[in-house]
Each structure stands twice: as C-alpha cells, then as structure tokens.
Design brief:
With 300 residues, the chain is of the alpha/beta class. The protein contains 13 helices and nine strands. Strands 3, 4, 5, 6 and 7 form a five-stranded mixed beta sheet that branches. Strands 1-2 form a two-stranded parallel ribbon. A two-stranded antiparallel ribbon has the order 8-9.
C-alpha cells in the first residue's frame, strides 16, 4: 500500500475533524470491538427508536417525548455529536449512559464518529457507503461502515460501528466478510449490466431505483475523498428524479466510468482525486438549504 494513500486517510474532513477532542479520543479503547461497543452504548438508531414507540417497549418509556426523534439533521459533524453527548452527560462516551441522554443517529453518523476516533489515534480510516446483505438478505438496505487499514493483516478491514440486528450467522462487526457488503460501485454496475434486479437495493425504508443507486455512488465517492456528506446531500445535476432520468447516454456512461474506478480505490486513487478536484458534476453538491440557483457559476 502506498504511504501517501495511508497518510491521506489519517487526515480529517469538516465532518471527522476531532479538533479539541484529540486527546480525549486517544484515551478511548484501541480494541475495535470494545470501541464500537462503546459507541453503541451512547446512541439509539432512529429505526430502533421508531420500533420502540411502535411496540411501546422500554425505549419508548425511557426516551423523553420532547426530544427529537432523530438528530441527523442537527449533528452533522463529529464535534457536534460529541459535544451533545457531553451536554447530555458530562462523562462523555460511557457504557452507563441512560436512554434519555442518548443521541438518536443513523449509520453514517456512527461511522464518522468511529472514523474520527481512529484517525485521532493515527489509524488510516475511510468511511464507505453501500448496502448490507448481512442486515437483510431479502432487500439489501443502504448502510455506511468504515474501512480501517490493518498493518498486521496488510489490508483494509471492514468495521461496522452501527447498532444493528443482523441476518447472517457467525456475524462479527470487525473484519466483516467483504462478500457481505455490497459497495455502491458494485451495486451500480451489477444493475447496469443486468446481473441483479434493481429492486434488491433499498435506501431508508422505501426509496429504490437507479437514481438512488447513483446518489449512493456519490456518497461513497465523496466519503473516499474525505468528504463524508450526509445522505441528505445530492449532486447538483441529479438532485431530482427528473434531472436524473433526463441524463444522456454519455452522462450515464460517465457514472459507469466512475463506478469502475471505485471498484479499486487504491489502484485508481490518483484518478479519483483528479476527478474530485476538477469535475464540477462530481464535486458540486446541493444541500437541504441550497439548490441549483446557488451554483450559478457552474456550466453543467
């Protein structure tokens, strides 16, 4: 593995910037199992909370009715997540956090938190977006995990920081079998080549289709460039269904080409970096508060 690539993934983004928490993060457990369990103990997945209220179980009784049902829109960065944890409980990340004092986030947020902690400790880490058959083998749900460089094994290992129930036997959230995670590029190309039905892939609880796969491709691409955008952020030129389904054959081919590069990130690292830094289509993003009219300088 190239040293400059490993060094790049020790770097932080606006989302994973550990900033004032560096010394605190360094003091957290180095063991990945222990560290991911610690993260688990400090948040509730929004789906788990929803199920709790639906089933009227213990979580629904302990989680305050006046709290937000999801903090994803608010706690976009690691500093925001951690500061909120300290605000709710001065012990910070703790195995003994009460339900009422947990944040409600999803897999993207758990992943950037794990990535930030590991980067502070000096580990090369990158966030990935794709689909997880190990969660549900009937419909592959979208999922975000981390790739961590393991010096001992001389390879990237997959680590899931999320609090989930799995659908496969002998599951481990550390060094996950790569056959059990469908990377966004693989999903896009397999659907485009007719190797798998598009309805197999699911974003959230109901979003499907090729436009969803294209956006997931962008989530993974940006994450690999240390820009772990929210799943609420879309590429400017395909942020609506109408725009996506009006793409030309050549524009769809450009997405195919991007996906091919993403199949081998380390081999194609330089080309991916060039695209990220120079291609307006691949770089410009609309957020919930911005739209095409905010990108007047773009010729796309």
């Amino acid at each position: 593995m190239r040293d400059d690539i490993l060094e790049f993934y020790k770097g932080v983004s606006k989302y994973t910037n550990y900033s004032l928490y560096k010394d605190y993060f360094i003091g957290l457990p180095d063991d990945l199992k222990e560290l991911t369990q610690l993260i688990h103990d400090n948040y509730i997945h929004r789906i788990v909370l929803f199920q709790g209220y639906k089933e009227k179980n213990k979580i629904s009784k302990e989680y305050p009715w006046y709290r937000y049902r999801c903090d994803d829109d608010i706690l976009l960065t690691v500093p925001a997540i951690v500061s909120e944890l300290f605000r709710l409980d001065s012990r910070g990340l703790t195995h003994f956090r009460q339900t009422k004092d947990k944040v409600v986030i999803t897999c993207r947020y758990a992943s950037i938190l794990l990535a930030s902690i590991l980067k502070a400790k000096g580990f090369s880490t990158r966030v990935r977006s794709g689909f997880a058959p190990y969660i549900d083998q009937e419909k592959y749900p979208d999922h975000w995990i981390c790739e961590v460089w393991c010096e001992k094994k001389n390879k990237w290992i997959l680590v899931d920081a999320d609090e989930i129930e799995v659908d496969v036997e002998e599951y481990t959230n550390v060094d996950i079998d790569r056959k059990q995670f469908y990377f966004a590029a693989e999903a896009w190309l397999d659907v485009r080549h007719g190797k798998i039905e598009i309805d197999k892939f699911l974003h959230g609880s109901h979003v499907q289709g090729l436009s969803m796969l294209a956006r997931t491709l962008f989530f993974d691409f940006h994450s690999l460039m240390n820009d772990e955008v929210s799943y609420l952020f879309f590429p400017t030129y395909i942020d609506t269904e109408e725009e996506f389904y009006n793409l030309s054959i050549e524009e769809l081919k450009q997405l195919d080409d991007l996906a091919v590069l993403l199949l081998d990130v380390d081999k194609n690292f330089d080309e991916l970096r060039y695209l990220f830094e120079n291609d307006q289509r691949f770089r410009s993003i609309n957020t919930p508060l911005t739209s095409d009219r905010d990108h007047l300088e773009l010729e796309i």
